[in-house]
Protein: Pantothenate synthetase
Organism: Rufibacter immobilis
Amino acid sequence: MLQLSSLSDIRQHTEMLRQQGKRIGFVPTMGALHEGHLSLIKAAKSQNDITVCSIFVNPVQFNNAEDYKLYPRLPEKDAQLLAQVGCDVLFLPTADEMYKQKAKLTFDFGELERVMEGAHRPGHFNGVATVVSKLFHLVKPHQAFFGQKDLQQFAVVQQLVQDLSFDLELVCYPIIREEDGLAMSSRNRRLTPEQRALAPRLYQALQFLNSKLETLPIEEAKKETETFLRSFEEIKLEYLEVVHAKSLQPLEYLAEGEPVALCLAAFLGEVRLIDNILR
Ligand SMILES: Nc1ncnc2c1ncn2[C@@H]1O[C@H](COP(=O)(O)OP(=O)(O)OP(=O)(O)O)[C@@H](O)[C@H]1O
Ligand SMILES: CC(C)(CO)[C@@H](O)C(=O)[O-]
Ligand code: BAL
């Protein structure tokens, strides 16, 4: 596997691949890789000639300095895992080079960023859109792969690709879970054993909400789910939403045939996790 860290090297390399007529599949990540990431690499490989993975803990998308500082960083182990699954190119830029020009780009995703992650992490999607735009320019992929775990991020990136006319296809893959249902996430590594034991309650809460929606109106089903979660003292729910799965706007009632997503964010101690299920 080829490892590149300078912007000019990746730009030249992907330019050469394009000239050779190769199809490039791209998986952007922040590292501390798990089976969720590897499922995206495998999907990219199966549909493209060359798979590029980037690992970059992007400072400008963090709204919490401590979260940035403590974000798990395991570059050597990540490189090993990527080589094992046959990733062709690993792009590992430094923050200094990525943000040398100190460009402060401002995006406006309208209502899409005024709910859930956008509402609770000010500036987050601006930072995601900035880095994803830069990465798309550098890597020039034909396809880019994202996980459903970050459902709102996928919607924002879809909007970005449309607004800036990026010539690529976006692909979203399902959430890979631990055996006990916990959505795999790099931040899971930061959980204490006690918090880790409680963490599957988040997925259970989404399943509980899903079953309550069979018989109850949305607000009542949400209230019962919040009560269920409150019984676990260490879990601090930030939001629980029933939203339209495309616009991500909260729903007042369920309409026949509408795609629906049940989403939550919660803290276990200092660690903030998100999860969702599609209904
Ligand atoms: N469990 C999962 N299953 C499938 N895809 C996932 C999963 N977790 C993350 N991804 C996807 O991998 C890509 C890179 O995500 P990222 O590196 O932020 O990992 P992460 O595990 O989501 O970390 P964290 O949530 O702690 O930031 C994103 O498109 C994300 O949606
Ligand atoms: C898309 C991404 C790599 C941008 O930093 C990040 O938000 C992530 O890992 O989901
Ligand atoms: N996985 C989304 C990136 C973030 O939490 O900042």
Observations:
- The CA atoms of residues 106 and 197 lie 40 Å apart.
